[in-house]
Write a structure and sequence with these properties.
This protein is α/β, with parallel strands linked by helices. It folds into 3 domains: 4-82 and 165-195 and 354-407, Nucleotidyltransferase, domain 5; 87-164, Dna Ligase, domain 1; 199-353, Nucleotidyltransferase, domain 5 (2-Layer Sandwich), CATH 3.30.420.40. It contains 13 helices and 19 strands. The strands form 5 sheets. A 6-stranded mixed beta sheet has the order 11-6-1-2-3-19, sandwiched between helices. Helix 4 (188-196) packs across helix 11 (370-382), helix 6 (236-247) runs antiparallel to helix 8 and helix 8 packs parallel to helix 9.
Length: 409
């Protein structure tokens, strides 16, 4: 009989803090969701801790709610990490192969990845993740799994994700004060991809677009691995701010207008349609045009997708991703967002819902839970490490053969 284990994810966003408890079996890909806790993310803004005491209180509330629902004590968590302060870099590493018969071993892969990490970073940055895109042996390029092959020169093209040192330390302190240990801190774009993308999409070529509250995270996959990732410092809260300014109303009122009446399709709305703010607000009592609301929302989302397209142009993938774009995050539920994204990106577009889950599906079957569910898949698929800054691949992913074979479609 397969052994069951409990995995807990903690998605700390700029709008909500989500804790999900899942049960998994070694031989199953499905994750059984048994508990969920959601709290406001007061004390956290754009991925940065702005008030430690308030952040600790809200994280604790989310954890306790998930514990009560699941009946499982929470001691260790996989943590999602994102925000405009996250930066990405491409790097190369080169080493000479030593040993009898010049056969490449796991130790050689460790060494070449260490060489790729020797990239010049600002003093206040720390590497969160290094992802091998492809290897080269002598003149043979495009190798996914080099262990066991022979050669005298091994190269790697790698993608590095780094975060602000103080942001990482402050987040660690919050988690320490809540009484839980960190299994792994995972960049949001990687976690979401585990939940909403399948192997075929990653192999063909796809861009994942997570529009969160404080930022938009993108990750481009091709040939089964990460080709590129980036963070755009615009998210759903910017739409709310635009509405507050354009409608001359309070932020809370603007958020309610966005949720209840928001759409990205102003052409489908009559000029005569209006919204009486007194029906949804105690502070604002004037009437606004529903078409004006849609026009404001459309403009900001168009800007986001235009910036995503610029990123794709920079890497030569504009209109060149057969699997198109997959949207996730709490800010992609606005009506018309898929049509606007399709027109802006000139790609097939679909919403990304969490995959391979059972149990309390009705609570988490939503694009806003992609990060939290992806963290569970990440933990189940790759294993854990006690120190998220330890980049020995055998410690992070178990054995290298196991890790690379899981990456191969």
């Amino acid at each position: 009989m397969s052994n069951q284990k409990t995995i807990v994810s903690l998605d700390i966003g700029s709008s909500k803090i989500r804790t999900i408890v899942g049960l998994v079996e070694d031989k199953k890909n499905l994750i059984n969701i048994i508990g969920a806790g959601i709290s406001p993310s007061g004390g956290i803004r754009k991925g940065l801790v702005t008030d430690i005491d308030e952040a600790i209180s809200n994280i604790t509330t989310s954890l306790e709610d998930a514990e009560r629902m699941s009946g499982e004590p929470i001691h260790r968590v996989f943590v999602g990490f994102s925000g405009p302060h996250v930066e990405t870099y491409n790097s190369k590493g080169v080493i000479a192969i030593n040993g009898s018969g010049s056969e490449i071993r796991e130790e050689d892969v460790d060494r070449v990845l260490d060489a790729a990490k020797a990239v010049s970073l600002p003093a206040n940055r720390e590497i969160l993740r290094i992802i091998p895109k492809s290897f080269s042996i002598d003149s043979q390029h495009g190798i996914k799994y080099p262990v066991g092959m022979s050669g005298i020169r091994l190269e790697v093209e790698a993608h590095i994700i780094a975060g602000h040192t103080s942001a990482i330390k402050n987040l660690e302190k919050c988690l320490y004060e809540t009484g839980v240990d960190t299994e792994e801190i995972v960049p949001s774009s990687l976690a979401c991809s585990e939940a909403v993308l399948d192997k075929k999409q990653k192999e063909l070529g796809v861009v994942l677009i997570e529009i969160a509250s404080g930022s938009t995270n993108i990750a481009v996959f091709e040939e089964g691995t990460v080709l590129y990732s980036s963070v755009i410092p615009i998210g759903g809260e910017h739409v709310t701010n635009d509405l507050a300014i354009g409608l001359r109303c309070a932020i809370d009122t603007a958020e309610k207008v966005k949720i209840e009446y928001g759409t990205c399709l102003p052409k489908d709305i009559s000029d005569r349609e209006e919204i009486d703010l007194s029906q949804i607000s105690k502070t604002d009592a004037h009437v606004v045009s529903k078409k004006q609301v849609a026009t404001i929302i459309e403009a900001r989302y168009h800007e986001i997708f235009s910036m995503v397209r610029e990123e794709l142009m920079n890497i030569g993938r504009d209109g060149m991703l057969p699997a198109g774009a997959v949207l996730c995050g709490g800010s992609v539920k606005i009506p018309g967002v898929v049509d606007l994204a399709r027109d802006s990106l000139q790609l097939p577009v679909q919403l990304g819902f969490p995959r391979d889950i059972e149990g309390l599906v009705d609570r988490v079957d939503d694009p806003s839970f992609a990060n939290a569910i992806g963290l569970l898949h990440f933990g189940h698929r790759y294993g854990t490490t006690n120190n998220f800054l330890d980049f020995d691949f055998k410690k992070i992913f178990g054995s290298l053969p196991k890790f690379f074979k899981k990456l191969i479609p």
